[in-house]
Design a protein that fits this description.
The complex is a heterodimer of chains A (about 425) and B (about 170). Chain A is α/β, with parallel strands linked by helices and about 425 residues long. Chain A is built from 17 helices and 13 strands. Chain B has one domain: Potassium Channel Kv1.1, Chain A, CATH 3.30.710.10. Chain B: InterPro entries: SKP1, SKP1-like, SKP1-like_dim_sf, SKP1/BTB/POZ_sf, Skp1_comp_dimer, Skp1_comp_POZ.
Chain lengths: ~425, ~170
């Protein structure tokens, strides 16, 4: 080679490439997989759990705004945003091949008042059509004070031809959208659209409208359900419209789990299942078993990760040992790698009954604590060590890593959530 | 102040304090090995880095100098934590530091940071490469990184089919 000093990306050893790829959004990883065989090899070797869409992990309904602040994207809210954006595009050097002016390939539209909406809603679709061919993700806010923004959805979608992910955050009270007669005039074809997440209350109709159109192409679906929506009856209907789902995240509010209403069709080959229950006044420990034997059972053969967030708002109650529910036999989960369950199980007498031996391939076990538990109970390193040792002693299994994390996602606090690896486990146990 | 001589592949010697050098995992090990094998505890260690040329080594040392008071990140840190630190830790200085470099230099810097075990530098350089990937099509990535498709005929077709729902037209 003439230029001896030049080194290309081809010279990077696999472990370094893997590090580079670890910063990528999952949809970008899929693109990189098609670049060349060596990249494909590296990407295929990354454990599947790392491909798990971080959006699904980090977003909980109540914290949408918090997460939103931590999610880089290009925000459009007022007239100035357009001119600022154009200025930014202009200032980029032409030789800059990396000309995606959208941060993180993400577009955020958040009209908080009618005046903002009317200033922008006609201009924006044409503008995005012109500049937004690199947008892959749209975060769209529906505020109760701006009902018109609902009607703009088809137009906006139409303008983003390469959309992969759509996240809609509904910020209004329950009854606003539940008008049975509402229809979108026409939803555009979006060939690459594959991830839908709808957060906030009163979104059932919106979900149905979108799933009817796009269900067959969805790989990831996430929604938040409130009891008053009466969605339980519609689970099967909604999921049956999405036969290609790989990731499913459900958030349930205030309902007693009724297995006969929520068993999902076994035809799905789900890889990642996330289930969150809010404000429940029932034993979480029991729910663990319930979810695993009822909701997760149909996918036992294919599921790689299960995320269960079953904590109560009030976390101080204890299980009364004389009133233990019977744990049913779990099905085999042969390829389940990662399991996330409530921290309350740690000190529950049900822990030894958890039947981890049914999960032969389990590598990571994470406990979600509530904020109160973290503050009150997990104070010193000493107590943490005791907790981890208790876990190792009670669960004889192939797990390589046990960790504890708060369900309140706070990036800045992350480093204080301890992770214990098998190799670093004290020997004297 | 205890010093150490670090010598690049093309023979340039850099005299740096041991405290600074020990912020690199590799140099730290080398210094300790030298201590054990040397009778004279006052002797100045000399470390040859045969894979890194002077220009790159200077950049690494410059970065270490700037970040000498940061907490040291363990190399085996959890993936997610590492990412958070890379995002939060990237200062204006880092951006200015990386701005004039072409991709070839960045690649060498990545290799050097990896070899010398400097986690912080590895993170920001890898993040830079990531930013060159994000938002591009497959063909643009190949052009930017001078890569050629080496898929055999239908192999690529197959991956494209599998990923049809996410590949750009």
């Amino acid at each position: 080679m003439g230029d001896q000093d030049y080194r290309g990306v081809a010279d990077l050893p696999p472990e370094v490439l893997e590090h580079v790829f670890s910063f990528l959004h999952p949809s970008e990883k899929r693109i990189c997989r098609n670049v060349c065989t060596s990249w494909a090899r590296v990407l295929d070797n990354i454990p599947p759990t790392q491909n798990w869409n971080p959006w699904f992990l980090k977003q909980h309904t109540g914290e949408a705004m918090l997460t939103f602040r931590h999610t880089p994207g290009t925000l459009f809210q007022s007239k100035e945003d357009i001119s600022n954006f154009l200025l930014d595009v202009e200032q980029r050097p032409p030789e800059d091949l990396h000309s995606n002016p959208f941060i993180n390939s993400t577009l955020i539209i958040n009209w908080r008042s009618e005046s903002e909406y009317f200033a922008l809603h006609q201009e924006l679709p044409a503008f995005i059509k012109q500049h937004g061919n690199r947008v892959r993700k749209l975060l769209y806010f529906l505020h109760e004070s701006v009902p018109q923004s609902l009607e703009s959805i088809p137009q906006i979608l139409q303008s983003i031809s390469n959309l992969h992910s759509l996240i809609i955050y509904c910020d209004y009270s329950n009854n606003w959208l539940i008008k049975r007669s509402f229809r979108f005039p026409e939803l555009p074809q979006l060939k690459q659209f594959c991830e839908l997440e709808i957060m906030g209350k009163g979104n059932l109709l919106l979900l149905k409208l979108l799933v009817t159109q796009y269900g067959s192409q969805l790989r990831s679906l996430s929604w938040f359900e409130v009891k008053s929506d009466g969605i339980s009856k519609d689970w099967r209907f909604i999921v049956a419209l999405c036969p290609n789902l790989v990731n499913l995240k459900m958030t349930h509010e205030d309902g007693i789990l009724q297995p006969n209403l929520i068993d999902l069709p076994a035809t799905l080959a789900l890889k990642r299942l996330s289930y969150k229950l809010l404000y429940k006044t029932y034993y979480r420990e029991y729910e663990f078993n319930n979810v695993m034997t009822v909701i997760a059972a149909p996918f036992a053969a294919t599921v790689e990760m299960i995320w269960l967030d079953l904590d109560l708002a009030n976390s101080n109650e204890n299980v009364n040992p004389t009133f233990l529910p019977i744990m049913n036999d779990l099905p085999d989960f042969p390829i389940l790698e990662e399991l996330v369950i409530p921290y309350s199980l740690v000190k529950s007498p049900l822990l030894p009954q958890m039947q981890v031996e049914k999960m032969r391939n389990l590598r990571k076990l994470m406990f979600l604590d509530t904020k109160e538990e973290f503050q009150n109970r997990l104070v010193g390193p000493e107590e943490l060590r005791e907790t981890f040792e208790l876990l190792w002693s009670q669960l004889s299994l192939s797990v390589e890593e046990i960790s504890i994390r708060s369900r309140q996602y706070k990036p800045k606090l992350k480093r204080y959530y301890p992770v214990y690896h098998k190799s670093s486990r004290p020997n004297h146990l | 102040m205890a010093l150490v001589r670090v010598i690049s592949s093309d023979g340039a010697a850099f005299l740096v304090s041991q405290r600074l050098a020990k912020r690199s995992g590799k140099l730290k090990t080398e210094i300790e090995t030298f201590r054990k094998s040397s009778d004279n505890s006052e002797a100045q260690p000399e470390i040859r880095i045969v894979t890194i040329r002077a220009e790159i080594l200077r950049l690494v040392l410059q970065w270490l100098q700037q970040h000498q008071n940061d907490p040291v990140l363990p190399a085996n840190q959890n993936e997610q934590d590492g990412r958070g630190d890379a995002e939060m830790g990237q200062s204006q200085w880092d951006r200015d530091f990386l701005a004039p470099m072409d991709l070839g230099i960045v690649m060498e810097l990545i290799l050097a940071a990896n070899h010398l075990e400097v986690k912080g530098l590895l993170d920001i350089t890898c993040k830079l490469v990531e930013s060159k990937i994000t938002g591009r099509t497959v063909d643009e990535i190949r052009t930017a990184f001078k890569l050629k498709s080496d898929f055999k005929g239908n192999e690529e077709e197959q991956t494209r089919l599998e990923n049809r729902w996410c590949v750009e037209n």
